[in-house]
Amino acid sequence: MKKKKQIIIFILLLISAGLYSQDTISLAVRSNVRKDMIQLRWAATSASAWYYTNKNGVIAERYTLVRNGQTLAEPEKKILTAAPLKPRPLDDWQNIATADNYAAIIAQALYGETFEVSGGTKNIAEIIALSQEQQQRYAMALYAADLSYQAALFAGWAIDDKDVKQGERYLYRIIPVNVDTSKHVEIGSAFTGLDNYRELPKPLELNAMFGNSTVMLAWNYALLEHFYNSYFVERSEDGKNFRRLTKMPLTNITGGSRMFRADSIENDKTYYYRIAGVTPFGDESPYSDTVQGQGRLQLIYVPHIIKAIPNDKGVFDVSWDFDERGNSVLSHFELQRSNTDRGEYLTVIPNIPPSKRNVFYPNPEPENYLRIAAIPREGEPSYSFPFLLQIPDSIPPAPPVGLQGYVDTSGTVYLKWRANTEEDILGYRIFRGQTAGEELVPLTDIAVKDTTFIDTVSVRNLNDKVYYAISALDRRYNQSAPGKTVEILKPLLIKPSPPFITKFEATDEGINLEWATGRDNTLISYIIYRGACKADSVITEILDIDNKKYTDKTAVGGTTYYYAVRAKNRGNIESDMSPQVAVKAKFIKEKGEKIKKFTAKRSDNSIILQWQHSIANVKTINIYRKVNDNPLTKWKETDINASQTTDTDVNISSAYEYLLVIKDMNGKPESAQVKVK
Q: What is the CATH number that goes with domain 404-489?
């Protein structure tokens, strides 16, 4: 009778007041990504659509849209169903229905001559208002399919796609077979790929309240409701060997945020409990943390907090129920407080007389879990269930700071940041973007409790950077603005594109080269190669990546040279060599003086000196300077390959004169002079 009553309550969660009309055939589709397959589950959105698709079947299609990060020009289509999927014939259901109660419910809903849900009270019957048998069959079939994936496969409401590959993304379409043109058919779809695989999270916030030969287990159902719709509870007497309390998983029939399970135990003996969540696809989660305790002889009467409301002075009046028959064995009450429902509880108001049923609690924290402890004269206390008292709070925490990270060569991203100092911090949310300026997308559905996070990105694509930001959540789910976005460089594993020499010519100055590169912002230099038969020797490396020109002034006239250019990125990875070009250097005929030019150009606070010469085998270049009427004195000696220098020690009101003296290896000097007013 209890199980039937649970089923009736569950139907409340399935029947929607906004069901589609009888003329609409619509499906809701959900996907599940495993390491080696993609699973699909679908459900008709109305009882009439359920009957229609069971009779005519559905077709499953898959379109491959993306491969290795590239969108395919033409999607690749594959039909996953050789024939329309329909529920198996009645005779095929005998074995699975015998072993699986939920399969039996589905078989009865599909093929039973009659189908009636009963056992509830009059009020429940009025609320549910199951006036049509068709609606009962539909609701119970959906309920059973959510709790048995194998039964859903048997009914033709699910499919496993094992022909899938890493790096590909798929669009799945579940299409009702339309044999009635008066019906409006809506296709269900899901978009996913193996790259979406994530390990299932373990259940959280399991706690146990041990009493007299009993234990009440409770855990947070709403926190992971997106993942799990049922749970197994396991018990151990040695902390190592666990057994399940029920053959079938437990479901949340109350609609609340927490689930409960009571168990009978022996007093003064330690028991261990843990839970595992079960997804609608039959996958089980990692086990929760283990809780343990012992049953104790306790008061048979348990307090229950009724309310906690503030008075005119802002002091909270906490009141509770307690059976007066327990007053005679009671020493006193205590009001206890904790930051979480699992403790540690500290006494905030002690020694409350047994006859009292309320107490005033001043100055509570922003978030308080309160309980009343009934302290007997002998034996163990009894405790009320935790009562959450929250002070109104709409102020979000401060944005997190100190975010840092790096990416290793496998594409693993390691992030860390400084913890927020607010006392009510719940955790953090992680956001990621692939390009500068784009809107960052969240990576986590639940709050990250730690101040570190590990992510994975592709390092073999054209994006050389990845962007992250962190926001903070408090226990009221007030969310801060994201902190400062951090740009993280990916390790470079791909060669840059080779440059292309666009212009080359021999001039009196030497051989001029110009080249072009792709739009690669990771480059740090260009390497120039030269050779007599092929470009095989490095003659220079240009560190200014915006400078895509070079003049080879060391070329000997009349000689043919081969030139090529490589690009190098910040990972010190060099591109392939550009196509080679061949250039013959010009002969330079000397005319008169070997210093061809010596000029001076004055600006506000400096003088730029430039010169050209045809002196071979230069030994030294010296510059002499004269200021106003003072004599010429040696000012500086420059590099033998220099062709200009700048005098920054000048006065705007002074006149200057410079003498350039160039000596060859034999000590023969050549000179030129210039005046600056």
A: 2.60.40.10
- Do the beta carbons of residue 52 and residue 213 sit within 8 Å? no
Indicate the domain borders of the chain. Answer: 2-196, 207-294, 304-390, 404-489, 500-584, 595-676
pLDDT at position 11 is 44
CATH number belonging to domain 2-196: 2.60.40.10
Mapped onto helix, strand or coil, the DSSP state of residue 192 is strand
Instruction: Kindly state the tokens that stand for 655.
Output: 């006149």
Burial call 646-673: b when 16+ CB within 10 Å, e when fewer? ebeebeeeeebbbbbbbbeeeeeebebe
263-294 pLDDT, tens digit each: 999 988 999 999 999 999 989 999 999 999 99
- C-alpha span between 351 and 124 (Å, rounded): 44
DSSP-assigned beta bridge partners for residue 672: 660
Assigned token pair, 35: 């390491």
What CATH number does the domain located at 304-390 have?
2.60.40.10
Residues 600-654 have pLDDT tens digits of 998 878 999 999 998 888 999 999 898 988 877 889 999 999 999 999 989 888 8
**Cα-trace Rg, the chain:** 41
Q: Which fold has domain 595-676?
A: Immunoglobulin-like (2.60.40)
CA 173 – CA 179 distance, rounded (Å): 18
> Which DSSP symbol is given to 574?
B
Token pair of 559, please?
Answer: 């000689």
Q: Where are the beta strands (DSSP E) in 145-283?
A: 158-161, 168-176, 184-186, 188-192, 207-210, 214-220, 230-236, 242-244, 250-251, 258-264, 270-278
Tell me which CATH code domain 500-584 carries. Answer: 2.60.40.10
Fold of 207-294: Immunoglobulin-like (2.60.40)
Helix (H, G, I), strand (E, B) or coil at 628: coil
Contact (Cβ atoms closer than 8 angstroms) between residue 174 and residue 187: yes
- Relative to beta strand 230-236, strand 207-210 is unpaired
CB hemisphere CA count around 109 (13 angstroms): 28
Please tell me the distance from the alpha carbon of residue 52 to that of residue 253, in angstroms, as a whole number. Answer: 29
Q: Which pLDDT does position 603 carry in this prediction?
A: 84
Q: Tokens in use for 224?
A: 């992971």
Q: Which residues contact 589 (CB under 8 A, 6 or more apart)?
A: none
| Contact assessment for residue 278 and residue 249, using Cβ atoms and an 8 Å cutoff | yes
